[in-house]
Design a protein that fits this description.
mainly alpha; two-stranded parallel ribbon; 24 helices; 2 strands; 77% helix; globular
């Protein structure tokens, strides 16, 4: 009976839809690979001889610096809140996740404003102690400054995944370590840390991919990386082929990170052999250690969220009367509408891909979903270039073959279609994962029972499956919504002429030395980004119970 089912379901309308989605989503990646076999543009020799080494060096240094810093910040704070009882611990569980809603480029210009001559620190020192400092109190507009900003913004990935891993570790393993004479420090390094290693490396890999995607921070600080090089080749030099070559090198970085993450994990097992998974009991510590642990978490929270957030609040209170007007509300409506549209489309595509997978157990159908969700690992600037090239070619074909000289203009490139297309490619995995978790939770048996009763697959999906996973659908839309709202490099390249989103508006105003005014758009992005943090913390708490 199973063989008959497989023969019948190896091809149907759902697999056809899935193939169309794959063609749609994978087009930018195939474009970049295809363009690599063409000759480089006229600017390539100049970039290769004068700039390429600097791009490589700066990108590599930032990657190493952020990986090391996020490891220290994320693992240490995750270990403290997961294993020790100290004042404020239950609040730090979610306070330390709040940087998740703080984009790196907003953090960058906020700290520049804080340390600037007219910032609150120098103003306080001048007014109260007559201390005069020329220029910025600390110059962070350099490579170390970029590492600092990206680290305090991205350590949340390591914190979240490491904390989840620590909470799921068995108390029995640690008790065995104590019985064998190991102290808490040795138990951490010899037992807890190795068991959490796959999770920690996965968190560092996520942070590293965000580093490669970053444009706002490095551009604002004047640090040349591959992302800024792609923008320079595309906009300043008008050389799309050179931008493709730089994008391909950047993709090599991404695949190298993914490969290293996979081989370090290998086939190792990091679980209790007997299946006993008694949750770890939090350790009561001395008063001295309670003060120390509370201080560590407080400092990390203040630096990574509270201080820059307070500065943004002050700027909003100073400038909202000038900025918040009818045009500003139109900007919010436009940004929210676009983000909601992309979220809904991504979830619809995810449902189609997963339903095709449910109706067929063939490996090639599984590979479709893997390729379709690859875009999140690719930096936004790379995807933007991969989207723009085929759309420009299609526009040229329409103009030459159909319209000739009667009508001029761009029909797909330079429109909201191009921007939406790129968003879907970039954030497909973000919406796909919650929907996949929802389908896995309800299982396949209800679906099979419905089909055995003669109900068609479309009606089964609409009447049974979708109502059962509606919370997962909402989670997928929400996560994509927030990511689209924060996305900067992709939006800067593909947005229509004079089209602004909250992210581009905040960045443009900051780069034009209107930092205080840019805080209004930035605050909307941050407050919206905090919403999924509430759901995320509840999910982790459920695992702890």
């Amino acid at each position: 009976m199973d063989i008959i089912k497989r023969k019948y379901y190896w091809w149907n309308k759902w697999t056809g839809f899935a193939l169309l989605i794959l063609l749609f989503v994978a087009t930018p990646l195939f474009t970049i690979l295809f363009k690599l076999f063409t000759s480089p543009g006229g600017s390539w020799s100049h970039i290769a001889n004068n700039l390429l080494f600097g791009y490589f060096q700066n990108t590599l240094l930032i990657l190493i610096g952020v990986a090391f810093s996020t490891f220290l910040l994320g693992v240490s704070t995750a270990w403290l809140v997961s294993n020790y009882e100290f004042p404020g611990r239950k609040y730090f569980e979610w306070l330390l996740i709040l940087p998740l809603g703080f984009p790196g480029y907003i953090m960058a210009y906020t700290y520049v404003g804080i340390l600037d001559y007219t910032g609150p620190i120098q103003t306080f020192l001048r007014n109260n102690f007559d201390i005069q400092v020329k220029g910025s109190l600390i110059d962070i507009m350099n490579l170390p400054g970029a590492i600092f900003i990206l680290s305090i913004t991205l350590f949340r990935y390591v914190f979240l995944i490491a904390r989840s891993s620590f909470l799921q570790q068995s108390k029995t393993m640690q008790e065995a370590s104590f019985l064998l004479g190991a102290n808490r420090t040795k138990t951490f390094f010899k037992v807890a840390l190795p068991m959490a290693r796959p999770a920690i490396v996965a968190g560092i890999a996520l942070a590293s991919m965000e580093v490669l995607n970053d444009y706002g921070t490095v551009k604002y600080f004047g640090v040349n990386t591959f992302t800024t090089g792609i923008f320079r080749a595309w906009f300043s030099m008008g050389d799309s082929t050179t931008a493709i070559y730089l994008a391909a090198i950047l993709m090599i970085f991404v695949f190298a990170i993914l490969y290293l993450e996979s081989i370090q994990r290998g086939n190792r097992q990091y679980s209790s052999v007997n299946g006993v998974n008694k949750p770890t009991a939090r350790i009561q510590v001395s008063t001295k250690n309670k003060i120390l642990y509370t201080s560590i978490c407080t400092i990390v929270f203040l630096v990574s969220f509270f201080i820059p957030f307070l500065q943004l609040l002050q700027w909003v209170s100073m400038t909202y009367t000038k900025v918040v007007n009818q045009d500003f509300f139109l900007l919010i409506f436009r940004s929210f509408g676009l983000a909601a549209l992309v979220g809904i489309l991504v979830v619809i595509f995810s449902v189609i891909l997963l339903y095709a997978l449910r109706l067929s157990s063939f490996k090639w159908v599984k590979n479709i979903t893997k390729i379709a969700t690859l875009g999140y690992a690719i930096p936004g600037a790379v995807i933007a270039v991969g989207v723009m090239i085929p759309l420009l070619a299609f526009d040229k074909w329409i103009y030459d073959a159909i319209l000739s000289s009667r009508v001029a203009g761009l029909f797909l490139s330079g429109t909201l279609f191009a921007l939406t297309f790129a968003y879907i490619v970039r954030f497909m995995a973000v919406g796909y994962n919650p929907v996949e978790a929802g389908f896995q939770k309800i299982g396949i048996h209800i679906n099979e029972a419905s089909r055995l009763l003669g109900v068609r697959s479309t009606k089964t999906l609409w009447k049974i499956d979708l109502p059962l996973i509606k919370s997962s659908l909402f989670s997928g839309i929400l996560l994509v919504f927030v990511d689209v709202l924060k996305e900067l490099p992709l939006t800067l390249i593909l947005r229509p002429f004079n089209y602004q989103t909250l992210a581009t508006k905040a960045f443009d105003m900051a780069t034009n030395e209107m930092i205080a005014e840019s805080a209004n758009a930035a605050m909307i992005i941050i407050l919206t980004g905090i919403i999924p943090i509430i759901f995320l913390n509840k999910m982790i708490k459920k695992r702890e119970l």
